[in-house]
Batch of 2 targets.
Target 1
Amino acid sequence: MKSRKTTIVKLIVPAVLLTVLLVMYINQTEVNQNQKMKLEAVAGAGLYQIWDNYNQIAELPSELADIVDLKLVKEHLIAVRAYSDTVDHITNSDLLLPISSSLMALSDRLPTQSNQLTSEDQELYTMLRNKITELIPLISAVYYVPESQEGAKVTLRLNDEKSELIELRDELKDIAGN
């Protein structure tokens, strides 16, 4: 009788233990999935804001009309910088923040007080717009799941196209001197 009770206990204890471990594993998997979804949502919102602000700069007139355009550029770049920090932190990368910092450094070379815009100011402004126009599709290629519509599915693991983004980051660092 005692050996039968011992055998039953030897079977029940591991079964209960296995069941508890399985429930804990399933619960942790759900928690991890929820956290991943939240991070993807935050990254997606940040990427949209980055895209929108860069797009607004790219849509400004190609010729500087006055100092107001330059102030708009700087306002958009300030917003991009904040969102870039968040997205870089979430994706554990160092791409968007250095790019936005370099673009900010370049925009700081443009005048903010005088309405006297030189040809050098125009050249720098044009270069900024061109780099931003080059950057916009790279963000989509690197931060979104391939084959998904833009804004449909953010990835927390950067795609293979990031080498082009790295090249642009390094080029902008060299130009900005930071």
Target 2
Amino acid sequence: MPTPESGLNILAWWGAGLSTLLAIVKLAELWRDRFRVVIGYRFTSDSHVGNDILIRNLSNRPLILGHWQLLHCSGYWPRRHFFDIESADLEANSDVHIAPHSTFTLNFCGADHFDWHADALNGQRIFIRLHIVGRRPVLRLVYPTRPSNTPTRFSGLR
């Protein structure tokens, strides 16, 4: 004969299972809608064609790029030092709207062209700092994408 407590236990387990399922669904939504910006590049040695830095918005929401800075970096954290290569014109006051799942290209040609070869960088790396409206500034590595002396995660597997 079932007792009233056994019915309450079944109800409690059902409530706990339903709450866990709803929490998993909410976490999956948050993971899907997270902020994702990926930086790519197309570098050339021809100053007429120029170097391109690609800013890809992989999230489901548009973003507004208020300002950007292209930087040389020497040293490693916590003793790294940044030096300006180029930055957006602050007086132009032109925010850039980047639609969801699209790419915005920064082109550096002519006088804005910069050298990116290993001998020109002299051990430095190229970073970009993005000032996205409503968020903290985002600092991303542009080039080289992985230092040659850094082991990869799968370097032991052959």
